[in-house]
Amino acid sequence: MITMDTTFDVRHCETSAIDEVDFDNIAFGNVFSDHVFIMDYENSEWKKGVIQPFGPIKMSPASMVLHYGQAIFEGMKAYRQQDGSASLFRPTDNIKRFNLSAKRMCMPEVPANIFLQALVKLVGLDNDWVPSSDDASLYIRPFMFATDSHVGVRASNSYRFMIFTCPVGAYYSKPVRVKVETEYTRAAMGGTGAAKAAGNYAGSLYPTKKAGEEGYDQLLWTDASTHSFIEECGTMNAAFVVKGKLLVPATSDTILDGVTRKSAIQIAKDLGIEVEERIISVEELENAAKEGTLQEAFGLGTAATVSLMCTIGFETWDFDLPSVDSWSVAPQLKKTLENLRRGVSEDPYGWNVPV
Ligand code: COI
Known about the structure:
23% helix, D-amino Acid Aminotransferase, Chain A, domain 1, eleven-stranded mixed β-sheet, 20 strands, alpha+beta
């Protein structure tokens, strides 16, 4: 059945797959909601968007994305509110970042109003898929890729923008062991590290696999030229608590401007926690670990929200963080953020956007 929306064509799925989902045991990223949003860019303009049942899409084997990697994405979430409604969390921040990534990767920007309408319409349609249990939410994955069928290297002229959603539980089931990476690099100055470009993630897989073979779950990425400064933690921003102060690597050309990162910083400041956003050296962190003043270490990201580290592997030794029972900052940030996103507490910042 096709119904005309004011902005998008909507083709509803015939049978919802929702009854097949065990909402009490949702793993991250394997289950997809009923509908997907698709909008194509051709001849220098965006065509009318379509919402249709989730399913495979056709592609030419010569699609440029498959060869030269012009692909970007975002990760964002919708939360079930205490009053039963659903809200998107800071969608306009993700839209802005998506369009910065698009610019860096030589792709067209998606008009912010159409992007937001698509999110509201899609999540509204699949509203029943927004989970209500603790630690669960609807993960939203907007992405765009090059679709020209062409083999020469150049920016594509045509693109496809899509959004799908999936109900998710926790990304990590327990605190993670991370290794300070001093050989491989996630991003270099002048590169694409500050963009959410698909290739950044592909490049991280081999070093992460090697770290896995050494017994670590994730990497603490360091700067490309000296490997002396902490950048990110796996696919998240990194944060540390030393002598009660929250230390967060400052954003740069090589560090993603995370929405969870900036939300946590704002909340920390408003809770009266001292925050420093600056360069953090591996040496400073290692000295704090040796002196016993490194109290907490965690990642901040959309998928994993506030994700605790239990061990940091330095060059010659492993430092085990103090027991989580003694932590104060990360649990406060997690709780405050969680309550705000679920409408349990007030949202003084206007971050929740109702669907
Ligand atoms: C997110 O937090 O949304 C991420 O970017 C992680 C994702 C690659 C699973």
